[in-house]
Amino acid sequence: MPRENEPPPRPLKLPDGSLAYEVESVVGIRKTEGGKSEYLVKWVGYPSNQNSWIEEENLPAYFKDNLGWKYSDPTAD
Fold first, then answer.
1. Distance of alpha carbon 35 from its chain centroid, rounded?
2. Whole-angstrom Cα distance, residue 52 to residue 20?
3. C-beta of residue 40 within 8 angstroms of C-beta of residue 53
4. In whole angstroms, what is the distance from residue 76 CA to residue 22 CA?
5. pLDDT truncated to tens, each residue of the chain (77 aa)?
6. Is 44 left (phi over 0), alpha (psi -120 to 50) or beta?
7. How far is CA 76 from the centre of its chain?
8. Can you give the residue ranges of every domain in the chain?
9. Which SUPFAM superfamilies does the annotation name (predicted)?
10. How far apart are CA 29 and CA 18, in angstroms?
C-alpha cells in the first residue's frame, strides 16, 4: 500500500496494449434492475473510498474464474 504522499499505482499495460488497474479483492455484490451481477472492487494501492461497482463481464478473467468459491450469490433463490 502506498504511503500517504506516494501517488497511486499506474495502470498495468496488457499484451493487447490496453490498460487495466489491478484488483485487490471483491468486497461486495449486488444485482442490477436488469438482473446482472455487479461486484464492488477494491483496487490495489487505492483507499476503500475509491472502490467501484463493476459489471461481471468487465471483471478480469482471473476473478471471474474464482468467484464461484469466493462468493455465493446472496440474492439467488
1. 19
2. 14
3. yes
4. 28
5. 555 667 778 888 878 888 888 888 889 999 999 999 999 999 988 999 999 999 988 877 766 666 654 544 555 55
6. beta
7. 21
8. 12-70
9. Chromo domain-like (SSF54160)
10. 26
Cell of 1: 500500500
Cβ neighbours of 39 (radius 10 Å): 23
What's the one-letter identity of residue 53? W
Q: Determine the topology of domain 12-70 in CATH.
A: OB fold (Dihydrolipoamide Acetyltransferase, E2P) (2.40.50)
DSSP-derived secondary structure for 36-58: -EEEEEEETTS-GGG-EEEEGGG
Q: Give the cell for residue 16.
A: 493487447
**Residue entry with cell 438482473:** 35
What pLDDT, on the 0 to 100 scale, is given for residue 56? 84
